[in-house]
Amino acid sequence: MQSQLVCFFNFFFVSLIYIYFTLLFFLNLSIVIDPRFKLSYYRKQEWEQHYIEAAKKIFISTFKDFYQNNNAINDIQNNDESDFFLSIFVDNNNNNNSEVEAYLQQPVAPVKTDPLLWWKVNCMNVFL
Fold first, then answer.
1. Which of 1, 6, 16, 90 lies at 20 to 30 Å from 24 by C-alpha?
2. In terms of residue numbers, what domain contains 87?
């Protein structure tokens, strides 16, 4: 009976840790992707610089994992053969990094801005 309780509490504790870090991950992404906050939220809350850099790194790696790869597949499907061969020789990694950096360097949107409407209007201007 005691070993079952220990197993239960171990499972419960590990589950809480997983939920905690998952929530932190998505909270970070939702703050940085919101054009009203970006990284300025962390600066206004007086976070230490290494935490701000960690939030930026999480945002960039998530962009690379989910957007960059899908964008490359869409480019290959939408372009003709000559563009495909050109894309083999052109390094798009720096271009995608500069897209993220350009988004983060833009001034934040006014507080009353609807973030979904902002992305609908500006998605082509930010990530081309």
1. 6
2. 2-126
